[in-house]
Design brief:
This is Nitrite reductase. Keywords: FAD, Flavoprotein, Oxidoreductase. It contains 9 helices and 25 strands. It is α/β, with parallel strands linked by helices. The chain has 3 domains: 170 residues, FAD/NAD(P)-binding domain, CATH 3.50.50.60; 112 residues, FAD/NAD(P)-binding domain, CATH 3.50.50; 83 residues, Enolase-like, domain 1 (2-Layer Sandwich). The strands form 7 sheets. It has a 5-stranded parallel β-sheet. Strands 9-16-10-11-12 form a 5-stranded parallel β-sheet. α1 runs parallel beside α7. It is globular. Bound molecules: flavin-adenine dinucleotide (FAD).
């Protein structure tokens, strides 16, 4: 059995790994080291929390006594500064050193900081951790007009929450469409119209040139002359995996730390999972994937050989009075057949992408009742051999999927 397992980073991937380890190995010493000053908490509850009773205790992933009950030595407020892979040793921010037999790196990601002049002004925020959420919460009464930079899922969720609490919101997106990774042009247009019905202004194809104001933000410049007034900016412009920790080591990286299907890196006894882990050339940055990878890493660390089965990412948005689902590949160029159905109310939309008799992706806006059929067909790679795809409608295809269940 392994003597000492050290886990760097204390998010959901870490917790799931600990559970998997303890299923198999009750004896190993487990060290959990996290930079934030909080015990592991649910990051996905932060956005909604900014208008709620937000505190560490309300969103903990596990009660604090759970760690002692499971023999986990917890170090919070402790950044791991470097790794010596020859001596199997970590250097902590206070200068102390910790030895490991097996190491799991689950350092997650940070929000991308767009290179905009003025991004460091007061009342300019980005939401990644509990500290950010508490800071945003404490200055919300100063922010009546809020500009959200970034029209991806997180930016939109934030805009909706702010709007529901009486804030005047403008969304600015650099690319020509909202949720560019999950929606095609038409779906994005439909979503944009739905959002604009709430009198939320959306500017796509628009870059922020500068954030203006003295110590605190007073507006943003969207070209040399146009200034949009605001008293708060929240930006949400993608993520960057926290991989600096391995920068002077032989651990192989690309966008993140490269792992195989056991979540092991190129260095024996060093594993990675969650937002930091790059598997099959991709970093997905989703909660359920961090859970699945953390579990696989945990089992393999104990010696129980387990393979990570790739998960097709699913994005859902429930906001602006509408539900939205996007899954898999939504690139028409990679599809041999595309089925589309748009409601006459111009508020509903279904698009299914088929490649070689398999559904590879789908977008649904509006009625979600039959989305699970699409999810299951994509996940199980169901073969549509008996379906004549030439003249079939979206609903007829969904009927066939239902009957084939
Ligand atoms: C506001 C918000 C809402 C989200 N909503 C959703 C959602 O609805 N659905 C969904 O699927 N995903 C969502 N996500 C993404 C999801 O939260 C992440 O995919 C998930 O948290 C990744 O888990 P992780 O354990 O890999 O890393 P993280 O949760 O990022 O945890 C990593 C931890 O490691 C620490 N760390 C980093 N470097 C060091 C170091 N050198 N030393 C010590 N500690 C270190 C970090 O401080 C952090 O606490 C959301 C993310 C945010 C920010």
């Amino acid at each position: 059995m392994t003597k000492r397992i050290v886990i760097v980073g204390n998010g959901i991937a870490a917790i799931t790994a600990i559970k998997a380890i303890r299923e198999i190995d009750l004896d190993a010493d487990i060290y959990l080291i996290g930079e934030e000053k909080f015990y592991p908490y649910s990051r996905i509850r932060l956005s909604k929390g900014i208008f709620d009773q937000l505190s560490e205790d309300n969103i903990l992933l596990q009660k604090k006594e759970w760690y002692e009950q499971n023999g986990v030595n917890v170090f919070i407020n402790t950044k791991v500064v470097s790794i010596n892979t020859d001596n199997l040793e970590l250097l902590l921010c206070d200068g102390s050193k910790v030895k490991y037999d097996k190491l799991l790196i689950v350092t997650g990601s940070s929000n991308n900081i767009p290179p905009i002049d003025g991004i460091n002004k007061g009342n300019v925020y980005s939401l990644r951790g509990l500290n950010d959420a508490l800071n945003i919460k404490s200055s919300l009464n100063e922010g009546e007009q809020i500009i959200v930079i970034g029209g991806g899922i997180q930016g939109l969720e934030m805009a909706w929450i702010l709007y529901q609490h009486g804030k005047k919101v403008v969304i600015i997106e650099l690319l020509p469409r909202l949720m560019p990774r999950q929606l095609d042009d038409r779906a994005s247009e439909i979503l944009k119209n739905i959002i604009q019905d709430y009198e939320i202004q959306i500017l796509t194809n628009t870059g922020v040139k500068k954030i203006v104001g003295n110590s605190k933000v007073e507006g943003v410049l969207i070209d040399e002359k146009i200034e949009l007034k605001c008293n708060m900016v929240i930006y949400s412009t993608g993520i960057n995996p926290n991989k600096e920790l391995v920068s002077n080591t032989k651990v192989e990286t690309a966008r993140g730390i490269i792992v195989d299907n056991k979540m092991e890196t190129n260095i024996k006894n060093i594993y990675a999972a969650g937002d930091i882990a790059e598997f099959d050339n991709a970093i997905i940055g989703l909660w359920n994937i961090a859970i699945a990878q953390g579990k696989v890493a945990g089992y393999n660390i104990t010696g129980k050989e387990t393979i990570y089965e790739k998960i097709t990412p699913v994005t859902t948005l429930n906001a602006f009075g509408v539900s939205l689902f996007s899954m898999g590949c939504i690139d028409e160029l990679r599809a041999t057949k595309v089925l589309v159905d748009e409601g006459i109310n111009k508020k509903s939309y279904k698009k299914i992408f088929v490649n070689n008799n398999k559904i590879i992706g789908a977008i649904v806006i509006g009625d979600m009742k039959r989305s699970p059929l699409l999810k299951s067909a994509i996940e199980k790679e169901i073969i549509l051999d008996e379906v004549n795809l030439r003249n079939i409608s979206v609903e007829e295809l969904l009927d066939k999927l239902k009957n084939n269940k």
